[in-house]
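Annotated sample (chain length 270).
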Amino acid sequence: MIAIDPISEIVKLTIASGFVAGEDAVSSLMVASPESGKTEILRRFSKWKNVFYVGDVTAYYLVTQLLPYIKNSRFITHIIIPDFLKVVYRRHSTASSCLMLLNQLTEEGVFKIPIGNTIYDFEGLRCGIVTSITKEDMKDRRHRFHKTGLLSRFIPVSWSYSPKTLQDIRKYISSLDYLDERPVPFPSNLKDVERHSVEVSADPTLFKPLEIVAEKYGKLEQTYGFRYQKHLIRLCMANAILECRNRVVADDVQKVLYLSEYMNLDYKPI
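Output written by the structure step:
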């Protein structure tokens, strides 16, 4: 798929944030109209060593299967769920228990959960989530997501296509260029690196411009924007890691500022 470089880059930084020492992994929720390339983008990252790519999850599956696997792994930092509608389009109690668990997983951590005669102790396990939903489904569920705190724990990533881009995509498909699409290669400098193990430093004054973006987003979502501000900082650190550096520089911040134009629910045209 062409023209999706900014969106793909946000996903890349989101997943790379799981290597930053002392920080929670960033989570993101991609929102766009059908046929906008959401699933294609996520599929291109499915083979990254720090990713567990799964088509669907329930609270029971998370507790009994997936989270024990992640806890015993030294590398998994993110779960990719290509279609979030599968998670939320269940009876209310089933979907709510899964959403609550995913919320805990992304921030405060998952601890002891009893199921039957077994107590699963995850010792505060945290993990990032990357998933997607259509624009229409987001409209229907935005109040519910806001009420559960999901929209402050996840960075929303939205976009639309300009008439020129739509024309370019049609030509791209007609020429069969889509057959040459390849997965995003895993960064070679992170080949043997364990999760949350890369120390990244920064001059705090570099992050000043992010405050304005976070404050603006907070007002739109009727929050303070503090979580969003932390997410942006973590993405800056992730970019430094991908650039083989252990210190954030101004270019990292400028890149995240540019990408932040899509980190909202404004559906900015590409």
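Annotation: The chain has eleven helices and seven strands.
Annotation: The chain has one domain: 5-262.
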